[in-house]
What we know:
By secondary structure, the protein is α/β, with parallel strands linked by helices. Helices cover about 40% and strands about 15% of the residues. A 12-stranded mixed beta sheet has the order 3-4-2-1-5-12-11-6-7-10-8-9, sandwiched between helices. α1 (about 15-25) packs across α2, α1 packs across α13 (about 350-365) and α4 crosses α6 (about 150-155).
Amino acid sequence: xxxxxxxxxxxxxxxxxxxxIVRALDSAEFPRGxxxxxxxSLPVLQRAAALVGSPLLFRRIEMAADGTGxxxxxxxxxxxxxxxxxxxxxxxxxxxPAGVISAAAGDAAYRxxxxxxxxxxxxxxxxxxxxxxxxxxxxxxxxxxxxHTEILAERCGVAEFAMMLHLPEPALTPVRRLxxxxxxxxxxxxxxGVSIVHVTLHTSVASVPGLLTTxxxxxxxxxxxxxxxxxxxVRRAIGVCALNPHGGEHGLFGNEEQLVxxxxxxxxxxxxxxxxxFPVDTLIRRAxxxxxxxxxxxxxxxxxxxxxxxxxxxxxNITLGLPLIRTSPTHGTAFDRAWRADxxxxxxxxxxxxxMAEKMARRQT
Length: 365
């Protein structure tokens, strides 16, 4: 395979998305095998380059609706030392105020994502990497979705999908040392870090018990197993979280474990290397130390908190169940520090998302 073409969406222009994209593109750590096509506002990208003092030059490219001839045009621009940009945004987005919720920014983020999806569906690009969007701005623009994941699922026409956070292997080493284990015991280490998938996602904590079903838990176990298989993980050890403290203590603290989660694990056990449910406080520790390659969490914060605590800038968000590859950093729009030269944003998360997208795209060939 030659170079991997990545569509990188600008996200909410009022946040740090434009800055981290510019910093990632200007970094010596940008993967050599990746070729970027930034989907976003050209004036905003130029302003972001000026903010960080980057010498990057951007060139707008035009293309057919189905992306015909795109690779050649992108390659020509990239070879000339410039960054190819496709700009589906309206003119008003360039005036969107920094760090402020706005319909203009929300609509532009939506347009860029849809355009990237269309290019991926037409096989004009190999993967999508998304900078963060702001959900309030998205809603203010009339796009009533909880976030990227649900938009992607709808546009791809899939009913079984999930948000997964992946923490690469190098990010786990200092945590293992902190926990008193300089190296993982022989036979326990996963092939490429730890991944956590969520059964429920952008919803209130109060609604979680009513949303959990055996079918939903089973679906997420299967999606995790498929990801680990596609990643070349031979062991594919999956641990499933309990919902309640101490795993419910046999019904003393809730019965979701017996009624919902245990049947799902039992249903998958004959086909997959899956076990649980386990109390999440001990399960995460076991996974970090290498006993499990994948974890199935019951709700958003159950999976997000440990991953972001361990490796906020190293973790990557991957959407499972799609007929295309999509990754993103795990951080948000960071309105409090956006467009501030005195508080520069780090591109570490964006670089990890780009690396993972490029790696996944190469595996598919």
